[in-house]
Design a protein that fits this description.
Shape: globular
Strand content: 15-25%
Largest sheet: 8 strands, parallel
Bound molecules: alpha-D-glucopyranose, magnesium ion
Distance between the termini: 22 Å
């Protein structure tokens, strides 16, 4: 892909870091992270080289889905602090030259949001049509077969007004009716509220869910469903998600952003590459970054990775900027998926691919999914579908800062437990360790941010044999060759189609840094390297 000549924007050149606020740093010792806690840790993020922070929801919420059920879009949940704390956080972030991205949850509200309470109050309520209400079928059953992501039917019966309402997630998260212009205006005003405060962008929750089929047709049965999967997977959500009209909505959100200076929008979208690309919009007038979740689910295999990366690069529309993600609060952590030594290779991949990387908090110290005993499970996805290992608690545990009490997260018992080995695995310990994950992340970030070839340069695939993945990053005369061994066994890189000479700038095995290489390289198992090529 060609390096574009024009100036790159902060969200193209930079590195995003996702904070799950409940678990980052507790300042008032209630066992739950909060905004003043985040402020205390900004210097850490700045010294790591992070340029933008995305916060999972911090708004008033009954916490049925840990903040993704919002009861007031323009407030701060007292657990996290006050609006003054938020203003201070924003100021402190900006003073450090960083940006702040908030989570916007436009698809659904909390069932305790005043809009829903009003909507639910009677069939003639002026806000009745703000949500999706439908009559029962003649036999009393739900309007159609749609299923909720968190188990069971997506329709909840309301005894009082004798209709069903639709909820794609929990029944405590009724879906808004985005076909109603008043709903559209209300949510665009929420965006304006935060943009006026100076927030730099939004990560838009479940963007592909926002509009449903106007005829509410039944979803087709998924012939590939297996019993170990979530019940939601029984059907193919052909009519409940990714409807053509969603693009008009995303476009109108983009227009709001474009009335301000350099604000941006990331869309949470779990769709195949061809569908994902449509969320950039024709003329790139929709999401700046439709989240690219390829690396979250792909088999850790060099051939598959190479082919998916190249497909993604190739499918980008003109002007569409790529992005990459290894983990988030909904997915198992990378270390738990590929193991600790491959997680180092994964870090190198994330931070040397072309496009904006988003780092999930704690991945920079190799945090693993923490086993949570059954009686401590809190995530509704885990509670509603027990036995399927679907709880997201393991990837949401407190940040491991030091070897002290509760890992320096809180003086009180944290809302989720820490792993037994946090005394060995924490930020403070790794700051001293030149072979640790944190050092690798910080070197990768530094190199990436210093080198235009890495943060904005071209990406060129290099033909390699499994288990090796290789590519070039190029800007002007500067060229880096990235070689990643995706296996535990040694392998050789002996290309017959080109010659090269250079020096290893960065290696997952730091002892190899500074070594010269020419025309062929041998790699240990789990070794990844970034080679600065000599100009011939
Ligand atoms: C998104 C969030 C997830 C939440 C869901 C419902 O997928 O990332 O955490 O449960 O939306 O809001
Ligand atoms: Mg607290």
């Amino acid at each position: 892909m060609k390096e574009t000549q024009h100036k790159h924007l902060w969200w193209q050149e930079g590195i995003i870091y996702q904070i799950y606020p409940r678990s980052f740093q507790d300042s008032d010792n209630d066992g739950i992270g909060d905004l003043p806690g985040i402020i205390q840790r900004l210097d850490y993020l700045q010294s790591l080289g992070i340029t933008a922070i995305w916060l999972s929801p911090i708004f008033p919420s009954p916490m049925a889905d840990f903040g993704y059920d919002i009861s007031d879009y323009c407030g701060i949940h007292p657990l996290f602090g006050s609006m003054e704390d938020f203003d201070e956080l924003l100021r402190e972030v900006h003073e450090r030259g960083m940006k702040l991205i908030l989570d916007l949850v436009p698809n659904h509200t909390s069932s305790e949001h005043p809009w829903f309470l009003e909507s639910k109050s009677s069939r003639t309520s002026p806000k009745r049509d703000w949500y999706i209400w439908k009559d029962a079928q003649p036999d009393g059953s739900a309007p159609n077969n749609w299923l909720a992501m968190f188990g069971g039917s997506a329709w909840e019966w309301d005894e009082e007004t004798q209709q069903y309402y639709y909820h794609a997630f929990l029944k405590e998260q009724p879906d808004l009716n985005w076909r109603n212009p008043e709903v559209q205006e209300a949510m665009l005003n929420v965006m304006r509220f935060w943009l006026d405060k100076g927030v730099d962008g939004f990560r838009v929750d479940v963007m592909w869910h926002m509009i449903k089929d106007s005829q509410f047709r039944d979803n087709p049965v998924n012939p590939n469903y297996r019993e170990h999967q979530a019940t939601y997977e029984r059907l193919i959500p052909a009519y409940s998600t990714d409807q053509p009209e969603v693009h008009d909505i995303v476009r109108s959100m983009r227009q709001v952003l474009d009335a301000y200076d350099e604000r941006m929008m990331i869309g949470e979208i779990y769709l195949p590459i061809d569908k994902l690309m449509t969320y950039y919009g024709t003329d790139s007038k929709e999401a700046h970054l439709p989240f690219n979740f390829l690396l979250l689910s792909i088999d850790w295999d060099a051939g598959k990775l190479a082919s998916e990366i190249n497909q993604y690069e190739g499918a980008l529309p003109a002007g569409g900027w790529p992005n990459w993600v290894l983990g988030n609060h909904d997915q198992p952590r990378i270390t738990s998926r590929v193991g600790q030594s491959q997680a180092r290779v994964a870090a190198m991949l994330l931070l040397t691919l072309r496009g904006t990387p988003t780092i999930y908090y704690g991945d920079e110290i190799g945090m693993r999914d923490v086993p949570i005993p059954p009686d401590e499970v809190q995530d509704p996805q885990g509670l509603n579908m027990p036995g399927l290992n679907l709880s997201r608690d393991p990837q949401r545990t407190p940040m491991q800062w030091n070897a002290g009490e509760n890992a320096g997260f809180s003086t009180e018992r944290p809302w989720l437990r820490l792993p037994d080995f946090y005394k060995r695995q924490n930020v403070e310990a790794q700051q001293e360790d030149e072979f640790g994950m944190l050092t690798l992340y910080s070197k990768l970030i530094r190199l990436r941010q210093q080198e235009p070839a890495l943060h904005v340069g071209e990406y060129k695939p290099v033909v390699t044999k499994s288990p090796l993945l290789g590519y070039l990053r190029v800007s002007g005369d500067t060229r880096f060759l990235v070689l990643l061994n995706l296996s535990h066994k040694p392998c050789y890189f002996t290309p017959d189609h080109f010659t090269f000479e250079g020096t290893i700038a960065l290696n997952t095995i730091p002892e190899r840094e500074g070594t010269s290489v020419k025309d062929q390289v041998y790699l240990s198992g789990d070794e990844g390297m970034v080679i600065r090529l000599k100009n011939s």
